[in-house]
């Protein structure tokens, strides 16, 4: 049976600007699953050749570590997901029963730095644990209309 080396997550987390995962998935506690009931309808992307599509913006209106401290979890009670400019979904952050790992292929760039490859490759492959997911953001209610996207948060 073939085996592939699996490297643990590095202790020094890379800055969020170098993370190859979509910013939409980032929460104050790290990565999270997004659980949505239904179908998301969004406009056609301006660049159809792009492999990524911006669906919306995820916001945590109660998250303020300067005011409440890093250990406060009250912010988990409310999350907003803005889809396009006219819909807002309200949900909450819940802990998963069993955490799981996000694993990606690990490769080397020409400048000697390690990089995560998203496509297939040749030769010996190595895998790396990118992050451990412990939470999910659940949106169980219907979207509500808002005027002007994120600016309409007070509506």
Automatic annotation (TrEMBL):
One GO BP: mitotic sister chromatid cohesion
Pfam family, one: Ctf8
Protein name per its UniProtKB record: Chromosome transmission fidelity protein 8
Organism expressing this protein natively: Periconia digitata
Cellular compartments annotated: Nucleus
Presence of keyword DNA-binding: yes
GO CC, one annotated term: Ctf18 RFC-like complex
Location (main, coarse): nucleus
Family according to the record: Belongs to the CTF8 family.
Gene Ontology molecular functions: DNA binding
Keywords: Cell cycle, DNA replication, DNA-binding, Nucleus
Residue segments, region Disordered: 1-22
The organism's taxonomic lineage, starting at the top: Eukaryota, Fungi, Dikarya, Ascomycota, Pezizomycotina
């Amino acid at each position: 049976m073939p085996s592939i080396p699996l490297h643990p997550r590095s202790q020094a987390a890379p800055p969020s600007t170098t993370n190859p995962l979509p910013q939409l998935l980032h929460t104050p506690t790290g990565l999270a699953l997004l659980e949505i009931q239904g179908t998301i309808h969004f406009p056609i992307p301006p660049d159809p050749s792009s492999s990524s599509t911006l669906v919306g913006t995820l916001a945590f209106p109660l998250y303020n570590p300067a005011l409440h401290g890093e250990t406060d979890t009250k912010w988990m009670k409310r999350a907003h997901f803005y889809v396009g400019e006219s819909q807002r979904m309200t949900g909450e952050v819940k802990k998963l029963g069993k955490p799981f790992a996000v694993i990606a292929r690990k490769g080397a760039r020409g400048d000697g730095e390690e990089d995560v490859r998203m496509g297939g490759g040749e030769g010996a492959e190595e895998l790396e644990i990118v992050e451990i997911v412990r939470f999910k953001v659940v949106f169980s209610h219907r979207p509500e209309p808002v005027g002007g996207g994120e600016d309409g948060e007070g509506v």
